[in-house]
């Protein structure tokens, strides 16, 4: 299983939004992320990039 860290705008320890992300999808205009414990994180955000081999996802949340 590939678990990823979710970041805001850049890879930085101060920009971590969630860890152990197991899945993500777009739903009703939101990006929805689910972690290993099935907790859900919802953001009105744009997708920046992801590298699941290196275990990161970057988004840009709307303010």
Protein model, in words:
With 63 residues, the chain is mainly beta. It has one domain. Helices cover 0% and strands 63% of the residues. It contains no helices and 6 strands. A 6-stranded mixed beta sheet has the order 4-3-2-1-6-5, with no helix packed on it. It is globular and about 30 Å long.
Mean pLDDT: 96
* Morphology: globular
Q: Which class of secondary structure composition applies to the elements? A: mainly beta
Output the number of helix runs.
Answer: 0
Instruction: Give the CA-CA distance, first to last residue.
Output: 32 Å
Stretches where pLDDT falls below 50 for ≥5 residues?
Answer: none
Keywords:
globular; mainly beta; 6 strands
Layout of secondary structure:
Elements: E1 4-8, E2 16-27, E3 30-35, E4 40-43, E5 45-51, E6 56-61
Parallel strand pairs: 1-6
Antiparallel strand pairs: 1-2, 2-3, 3-4, 5-6
